[in-house]
Design brief:
The complex is a heterodimer.
Chain A lengths: L31 H19 L9 H21 L1 H10 L9 H7 L1 H9 L8 H23 L4 H6 L3 H5 L28 H8 L29 H5 L12 H5 L18 H13 L1
Chain B lengths: L9 E7 L12 E6 L5 E6 L3 E8 L11 E9 L4 E3 L4 E3 L5 E4 L7 E6 L4 E14 L23 E17 L9 E4 L5 E5 L3 E6 L7 E5 L12 E6 L6 E6 L4 E5 L11 E3 L12 H5 L3 E4 L5 E5 L3 E6 L8 E4 L8 H6 L9 E3 L5 E5 L4 E6 L4 E6 L15 E3 L8 E3 L11 E4 L5 E5 L4 E6 L3
Parallel strand pairs in B: 28-29
Antiparallel strand pairs in B: 1-32, 2-3, 3-4, 4-5, 6-7, 8-9, 9-10, 10-11, 12-13, 13-14, 14-15, 16-17, 17-18, 18-19, 20-21, 21-22, 22-23, 24-25, 25-26, 26-27, 30-31, 31-32
The chains are: A mainly alpha, B mainly beta.
């Protein structure tokens, strides 16, 4: 099940490719059906990975294949720019006051705007900048919307696709503001499967240190990860000592080829339980 | 041997196993293997048992010759275990059985579950000693004072008894789940492969094994590829191949180095960009690899196809056979219900002219290589009259369904044929459905 959302104005029913069908190397249209299907596939895959808690050791081959599928989806969503929206949306999901101060910061619209701007690397060009601004506006709008409906958990998941529908220029948008590190901007070409990008995004959903200092700059939100803590081996062997993880936490442990150039400790962290909660909602709805 | 596959007429011969539809989990067949002469047929099941059938070779000269396989031996090979360190159960399911070439009167086979390989000796006993001087009939020792004469026991015939005894237990060598075992042509060593490593054993030595392939990354978070199957070359004792979840096959020469992490050859077909989807990698994952008997080719099975590779050509297979291409549009559903992860096996016939593999709805497929003909047959109780000829089946992918065709949506995905075996010399095949073993033979024998 996926959250309800506003239908994109640009959807072209005649050309929507099915998920299992051929997705050629050309730019894929971000129709709502396709992106919802893709989101559904992503959710399905994460649930499959989570359900490895049986008495018997899970099948490693199956887990690796599902994990690779998740990475593929995430890479494509990164290229489409939808990944950043989703991660920010989930990060901004309402949380109790004693949780991350950082998350609370994200919920403040003005900070969100500043936050969305600050980690951006060298802009690629004037067109890019315009699109980035549009994105920020929409993200901020989404945040505001979320702050208003803070008490209602359902709305947090409901606004996930909303940003998709708001801006027509999105399918061409490059993924940029999700780069939290100081690395130069990944190549603009959409067909470059940037492994570094993948690695950054995999670090998005993880909480390691619950109380970073209250600082509006987004970079302050990100703390170092201890990768061995979420060792894939540990995850997949279903050790009971592993704490309950939200579905997107798995993404961190699935970091692909660690590109040596990538600087560590520059990923966004989100509240574990909050994601879990949201996931339950998405699954349960 | 009989002619090519399309000329063959396959008839039902026998079916083994429970009739009722309610399948007991322990009865699920997990492996099927003929021995080197084809006289013995072994099956392993999820309950850790091995059942061996023996071919009754009677009336071989009669035109209506029908070889019957009857139960020869049944034994419990593996028991469920508990890994206390990980708090996980180790299944007793038999993943693979491999026969050793016969050296003496006894038969030997290797059977493995996820963690432990065992060497079993199956021997016949058809005589028993009688006339002990010092013992009573029931084994009690006689009173020495009552013995007045010396007698040597005499061996007298008895009803055939088949005994299976474990001769070696090869354990504690695999962190991950064993998916393959393969006996070397030198008859002294064998390999066992799990998801990340391949070990070499000496059949006589159980406390030591050599690691020859290790693809485990230092950081498990970087794991993107696993070993799915491995096999020794049938003739060259230094050569082995292993397949991966990314659709590649690596050929290794053990003479090159002790650790065969560097392959000698890498077999990989470039991906067809027009067929690319989120499921491309999953369906490219190879579930089985088998050398041809003559050692010139190898066959791989991925989710939708069977490919035959020439060992001298790495960049693409020489033949590709579509097993159930009509499933390509259903991949999302098959991913959802996990069927996309089913591991189908494949096998060669004795002279490498035909290859066979299973599918869903209890269908299995045969591809005749030189004539490029293929046939789909079904293993079902309805077609189980003695010597009943199997009618070819057809799946309708779309459009108007003809009579006798079955539409894709009517296929039963719970009825899958994962394990098939072909007699090494004759046209006799063993096909395992979930809990039944079907034996078919060619009418023209």
């Amino acid at each position: 099940m996926f959250a309800k959302g506003t239908k994109r104005k640009f959807s072209d029913p005649g050309e929507e490719p099915a998920l299992g069908a051929e997705l050629g190397p050309v730019v894929r249209p971000l129709s709502s059906t396709y992106s919802l299907q893709r989101q559904s596939l992503l959710d399905m895959s994460l649930i499959k990975l989570q359900l490895c808690h049986m008495l018997v050791e899970p099948n490693l081959c199956r887990s690796v294949l599902i994990a690779n599928t998740v990475r593929q989806i995430q890479e494509e969503m990164t290229q489409d720019g939808t990944w950043q929206i989703m991660t920010q949306a989930l990060a901004a999901a309402q949380c109790p006051a004693d949780r991350l101060v950082a998350t609370e910061v994200l919920c403040r619209p003005s900070e969100a705007l500043a936050a969305a701007q600050s980690p951006k690397p060298l802009p690629a060009g004037p067109e890019e900048e315009e699109e980035e601004e549009e994105e920020e506006v929409v993200v901020a709008a989404a945040m505001e919307e979320d702050v208003d409906s803070e008490a209602n958990p359902l709305s947090s998941s409901s606004f996930l696709p909303a940003p998709f529908g708001a801006e027509p220029g999105w399918e061409d948008e490059e993924d940029d503001s999700e780069d939290e590190d100081s690395e130069e901007c990944p190549s603009d070409a959409e067909d470059v499967p940037d492994s570094r990008r993948g690695d950054q995004v995999f670090g998005t959903f993880e909480i390691k240190h619950p109380a970073p200092p209250p600082d509006p700059a987004l970079e302050e939100l990100f703390s170092d990860v201890d990768p061995s803590y979420y060792d894939l081996d540990t995850v997949l062997t279903g050790m009971q000592s592993t704490p309950k993880m939200g579905p997107y936490d798995l993404l961190d442990s699935l970091s692909p080829h660690a590109a040596p150039a990538l600087s560590t400790g520059t990923s966004c962290r989100s509240d574990l339980n909050e994601l879990d909660h949201i996931m339950e909602i998405i699954v349960g709805s | 041997m009989a002619g090519p596959g399309a000329d063959m007429q396959w008839c039902f011969s026998q079916v083994k196993g429970a009739i009722d539809d309610d399948v007991a989990e322990a009865d699920i067949i997990s492996t099927v293997e003929f021995n080197h002469t084809g006289e013995l047929l072994a099956t392993g099941d999820k309950g850790g048992r091995v059942v061996i059938f023996q071919q009754e070779i009677e009336n071989k000269n009669l035109p209506q010759f029908r070889s019957e396989y009857n139960v020869y031996s049944t034994f419990q090979s593996h028991e469920p275990e508990f890994d206390y360190l990980k708090s996980l159960e180790i299944e007793e399911k038999i993943n693979k059985i491999r026969w050793l070439p016969q050296k003496n009167a006894a038969q030997f086979l290797l059977s493995t579950n996820d963690k432990t390989i065992k060497l079993w000796k199956i021997s016949e006993r058809d005589k028993r000693p009688e006339g002990y001087n010092l013992k009573e009939e029931d084994g009690r020792y006689k009173d020495p004072n009552s013995i007045t004469a010396l007698r040597v026991p005499v061996l007298i015939p008895m009803d055939l008894m088949v005994e299976a005894s474990p001769r070696r237990v090869f354990s504690n060598a695999h962190t991950y789940h064993i998916n393959s075992i393969s006996v070397n042509s030198d008859n002294e060593t064998y390999l066992s492969a799990d998801d990340l490593r391949i070990n070499l054993w000496n059949l006589e030595i159980t406390d030591r094994s050599f690691n020859i392939v290790d693809i485990k990354p230092t950081n498990m978070e970087e794991l993107t590829e696993v070993i799915t199957a491995a096999e020794f070359h049938p003739l060259h004792c230094n050569t082995l191949v292993y397949s991966s979840s990314k659709g590649t096959i690596r050929l290794c020469d053990m003479r090159e180095s002790a650790l065969c992490d560097k392959h000698s050859k890498l077999f990989e077909e470039p991906e067809d960009p027009s067929n690319r989807s989120f499921f491309s990698e999953i369906i490219s994952s190879i579930s089985d690899v088998k050398f041809s008997h003559n050692g010139r080719y190898m066959m791989t099975r991925d989710y939708l196809s069977v490919k035959v590779w020439d060992l001298n050509m790495e960049n693409r297979p020489v033949e590709t056979y579509q097993v159930h291409e009509y499933l390509r549009s259903k991949l999302c559903s098959l991913y959802e219900n996990d069927c996309i992860f089913d591991k189908f096996e494949c096998c060669w016939n004795g002279n490498d002219s035909v290859v066979m593999t299973g599918s869903y709805n209890n269908f299995f497929r045969m591809f005749e290589r030189s004539q490029r003909r293929d046939v789909t047959l079904e293993a079902s109780r309805e077609n189980s009259k003695p010597l009943q000829v199997l009618k070819p089946r057809k799946v309708c992918a779309g459009g108007k369904r003809k009579k006798d065709e079955i539409s894709v949506d009517s296929l039963d995905f719970n009825k899958k044929i994962l394990h098939t075996a072909w007699h090494p010399q004759e046209n006799i095949i063993a096909v395992a459905t979930t809990n039944n073993l079907y034996i078919f033979q060619d009418k023209v024998n």
